[in-house]
Amino acid sequence: MSPAKQRVEIDGRTLSVSNLEKVLFPEVGFTKAQVIDYYVRIAPVLLPHVAGRPVTFTRWPDGVEGQTFFEKNSARHAPEWVRRVTIPSPGSSRGRETLDMVILESTADLAWAANLAALEVHVPQWRVDDDGQPALPDLLVLDLDPGQETGIAECCAVAERLGQRLEADGLDPVVKTSGSKGMQVYAPIEAPADREHPSRYAKQLAQELSAETPDDVVWRMEKALRPGKVLIDWSQNNPAKTTVAPYSLRARVGATVSTPIGWDEVDAVRDGSLDPAALRFTTDDVLARVEEYGDLFDVAGATRAPLPEG
C-alpha cells in the first residue's frame, strides 16, 4: 500500500483512506483527515436523518476551489457492507431508467463517503421501504434563499412566519441553517394523499406569504424577481429533488455546516438581540452544540401530522 494510503478500522469495518493531509478548504487549512474526523464524530446525530434515504453526494476531489460533481449512481464503488438500492431514475438523469444508490447507515459508511471527498450529503424527503422502493414523503421542507441585499436576518423573519403557519396547521416545525446563505424549515408529516401533495401545500404557503408581503417574499424562481427579497423555494418537495442533510458540511468558505437551530435563536435574530453572524457554524461549533443541546433537529420526537387537503 502506498504511503498516501492507510487502513483504518471504524465500527468493526476496515477501509482504506488516502491523502489525509490534502487540504480541501484552503482558506482555513481544513484537511481530508479533518473532514473524515468530523463525519465520524457527528455520526450519532447525522445518521438518523439520512436513515433509509438514498444519498446524493457532492464530491470535491481537489478541494472546494477545484472541480466538483454530483454523484447519485455511487453504489458501483461502495464497499460490500454499504447498503445499495436501485431507484427509478428521474428524467434529468440522461436517459438512465434506474440509479444504483447508497444509503448511509453506519459511522463506517460516513467515513467511506468522506474519504471520497463527498463533502456534502443530500437526501430526499422520502425513505425507501423494506423492499428498497420509494415510499411516500415523510418530511415537508421550505428552503429560504436570500436574494441580493438580504441575508440570514431576513430569512429568520420569514422562517418565523412559516413556523407559525405550520403550527396553525397542526404541524411541528424544526429549522436549520443551510450552511451557506439561507436556512430551511422542515416539518415531519404523515404519508400524504399522493407524492405531489407536499409540493402543492408548500407552494400555496409560499404564495400566501408572498401575497401578504410582496416587498419581502417571492415564491417564483426568476432571479430578476429576487433582489431584496427572500425566495421560499417550495419546489424542494418534488420527489426527484434533494436537500442538504442536517449536520452536513458545505463546500463553502470556512468549512461551514448545515446546522439545526432553536426557534429561540430565530426569534433573537429577528428581534435584533442576536447578531445574524452567530448563526454561521463551523464543525467545532456544531460538535460543541450537540454536546450541550443534543439534536435540535429531532424530527423523530416531533409530532407527525397530516397535511391539510389541497
Automatic annotation (TrEMBL):
Annotated Gene Ontology MF terms?
Answer: DNA ligase (ATP) activity
Top-rank taxon, per record: Bacteria
Q: Which residues form the DNA ligase D polymerase domain?
A: 31-297
Keywords annotated in UniProt? Ligase
Top-level EC class, please?
Answer: ligase
Q: What Gene3D superfamilies has UniProt attached to this entry?
A: DNA primase, PRIM domain (3.90.920.10)
| EC code(s) of this entry | 6.5.1.1
> Can you say what this protein is called?
Non-homologous end-joining DNA ligase
